[in-house]
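Exercise: predict the structure of this protein bound to FE2/S2 (inorganic) cluster.
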Amino acid sequence: MPVIRFVREGLDVECYPGENLREVALREGIALYGLKGQLGNCGGCGQCITCFVDVVGESSPGSLSGRTAVEEQKLRRRPQSWRLACQTLVQQSVLVLTRPQVGFGDADQRIAAAKSQPLPAGPTSWPEPPAEEQDEDSETTTSDEEV
Ligand code: FES
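Solution:
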């Protein structure tokens, strides 16, 4: 599975190939939005331009979905490595800096440290379903056979 390394938060998060970056970040409790986005965002429609992320480091081609037409328009004055999280699907492992417009003291050191740790290329494998679900299925089968 791809790993998203959130540099600012110092957190590695696994996701399914093709998952939406915004949805993964919100699910993991990552502070994706600055104040403006916290007060009001478009919910992932690509209209509010508050879910900026910077894809730091060299990611292999195809690690993320290509820029959408919305991003091409909304990010035309931003660095090429910036993306809108809500418009981005993760295919392979990447390093991401949330809220790149907000600086923090040791950003360069943290980015360098994040780059120095290898990431799995991903996708590697799909997770096995929890054992409990397998047991429920087998019980259902057993009770069906009894009837
Ligand atoms: S959530 Fe509004 S542009 Fe991404």
